[in-house]
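Why does this matter for the project? Reviewers at the last site visit asked to see concrete outputs rather than summary tables. In response, this paragraph embeds two records directly. Each consists of the residue sequence and, immediately after it, the corresponding structure tokens. Nothing has been edited or filtered.
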Amino acid sequence: MLALVNLLQLIGGVILSIGYIPQIAKIIKTKSVKDFSLIYLGSIFGGIVLMEIYAIYMYFVVHTAGAFALTNTLSFILSGTEFFLVLYCLKKYK
């Protein structure tokens, strides 16, 4: 049962992480971010940062949650990329 739950978490985490890629590509292509909510993106990124701290603790101290640590790190990188691209484009193109 634990293996099934870990597999479900891995699949769900990958799906959630991959969801950032089309938006990042669109930002890079169009450089248009005027309709983005910085409060929304910042809160999502901030929440993922806190979850990343938890994932690192669980993986390195408790020696569990490897799938969560992997997918959360992927989400951390991609959501951070999206957030900082929006900040960069807003600053550059204002």
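We now turn to the second protein, recorded in exactly the same manner.
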Amino acid sequence: MAATGIPPDAPDVLVTSRPLDEYCALFDLTRARLAALPGPLLDCPGGAAGLAAEARELGCRVVAADPAYALPLPVVADRARAARAAMAAAMAARPHLYPAPRPDRPGRYLRSWDRARELFAADSAAHPQRYVAAALPRLPFADGTFALTLSGYLLFAYPELFGPERQLAALAELVRVTAPDGEVRVQPLCDGRGRRCDHLDRLRYALGERRISSEVHRFRRAGDDRTRRVLVLRAADHRRRAGASIM
């Protein structure tokens, strides 16, 4: 298998339905910061999240990109319901990986996913142009399109899908479509079992070779004593640099 290839037995990516407040908590953002963005926000992968619908109420323009959007909306909704069931099972089986939000009230947390999924279904039906069928590491957007780019639960969460070279290509692509004065935020930096990426330093070095600066931003999530980590990327320019390999 090539370093950038996807194995035939790779798992499907869960189509999750996270609400706006969960995005803020996961990426260390605030509603005020989103409202003040000077340009549009990219959510990649967007899944069946409520972000685009909710952030629009703040005056924030959001474009969501996900290969699942090539499917009929009822199929995407079915996959989102399956992801909700998978999350419920994971929280029951490995509670130490899900200490927040509200570890004593998982039902309430999962109901927030239900509301987000309903918002997504209504918004994607009413505004299909905001939901673009696309998959990393190639996106159909011009250089510097977005003021802020978010990528959650993909590049490090599924090492079977994204090996080191594919991660590098995907991260560089996210930076390419982000404005020079904007930033890319990526989380989590571990897989679905909580195992940290063991080549993150090499990956960051390779990004530097492409003139992409990186920072592991650490913060405390409200209501949780654990330290969270988000990879923050910025670029001096968006020109592709050849020969940047981490292998």
